[in-house]
Amino acid sequence: MTDTPCAPDRGRGAAAVLTGLGAWLPPRRVPNSELCNRIDSSDQWIRERIGIAERRFAEPHVATGDMAVEAGARAMASAGIGAVDALVLASNTPDRPCPATAPWVAHRLGLPAVAAFDVMAGCSGFVYACTVAAGLIASGTARRVLVIGAETMTALVNPLDRATAPIFGDGAGAAVLEAGAPHAEGALGPVVWGSDGSLSDAISVPAGGARGRHRRNRTAPEEHFVHMSGNEVFRHAVRRMTAAARHAAAEAGWVLGDVDRLIAHQANQRITATVADLLEIPAARVPSNIEQVGNTAAASVPLLLAHAADQGELKPGHRVLLVAFGSGLAWAATTLVWPAGLSARLS
Ligand code: COA
């Protein structure tokens, strides 16, 4: 590797092709019963209303960057590569407010001088980061990009808030995207994405940013945790995910009946089921891992891809529709045909 700021523009116009997938989950499993010692809820309510049985919590000394390194190393091993031209980390829980976490992750992965930066786009962050990577590849700026989604949601969730505590979990997933032919299997299709900042309060952490700096010494501890209007988010999630998924499929030239697998951000099993119903995609074509891992925000889509691939639910030639939604509000959807020979690394 050299210190040149970007790769030569060989490959201009190339598609971003998925060649590697990796995942890492903290070992500590937290069942609903453990949360219900602290909040007024029940295992039955959480299973029925959200679809979660347990989630993983990172130990206090483990942060987003550590999990990103683990998932990133696995994705590179899955792709059979030892170097990339850029690293994009999607997260809502960076290790520190400054600097970005990605350069440290690149350093720990043994990728010296590589371009590395963070993307924050809520639970859509991984699909946003893949879109940025695809743009780098299409412009000839990079030929190989490591895209990671990693979250330490336990850093943002108030363990006493029953509106958020049952929902979120920690973890990381990663993908390698490499320059290839536009119609190659594994090539990302057209992206449909968007945002609505008029609803930025629907999921937010009120304190700790530049906007609150004048009252830094007067913030209540709760203001440093995520606040969410669950009902409002639910409604918008269903509307935006359905529209974006429909639009992305059309942009790819597919009808919805062509979709073999819907990979939806694991926000709430009822949201996923409602979106699938509206799109008329049968439940058997909608893999899910929320029951075991909860909502892992920007890590959710790559974790589900890795788990579904590992379990043989994604088969070569499958037409896969990806869709995500989260804080911002922000949403994104894209498509790909599942490639042959891709083996996700979970360990
Ligand atoms: N345990 C037990 N009861 C709970 C509860 C909890 N954790 N949270 C709310 N309730 C109760 C309420 O008090 C209310 O009781 P009532 O009918 O006696 O007044 C009832 O359940 C319904 O409350 P509501 O807020 O309407 O719940 P809901 O069905 O909308 O579920 C969420 C709440 C948060 C699970 C749901 O709105 C949701 O998943 N929203 C989207 C969140 C999300 O995906 N965020 C991430 C986006 S990326």
UniProtKB/TrEMBL annotation:
UniProt protein name: Beta-ketoacyl-[acyl-carrier-protein] synthase III
Lineage of the organism: Bacteria, Bacillati, Actinomycetota, Actinomycetes, Kitasatosporales
Associated pathway: Lipid metabolism; fatty acid biosynthesis
Beta-ketoacyl-[acyl-carrier-protein] synthase III N-terminal domain residues: 117-197
One annotated Gene Ontology cellular component of this protein: cytoplasm
Sequence similarity: Belongs to the thiolase-like superfamily. FabH family.
Top-rank lineage group of the source organism: Bacteria
Entry keywords, A to Z: Acyltransferase, Cytoplasm, Fatty acid biosynthesis, Fatty acid metabolism, Lipid biosynthesis, Lipid metabolism, Membrane, Multifunctional enzyme, Transferase, Transmembrane, Transmembrane helix
Molecular functions per Gene Ontology: 3-oxoacyl-[acyl-carrier-protein] synthase activity; beta-ketoacyl-acyl-carrier-protein synthase III activity
Subunit structure: Homodimer.
Every Beta-ketoacyl-[acyl-carrier-protein] synthase III C-terminal domain range: 250-338
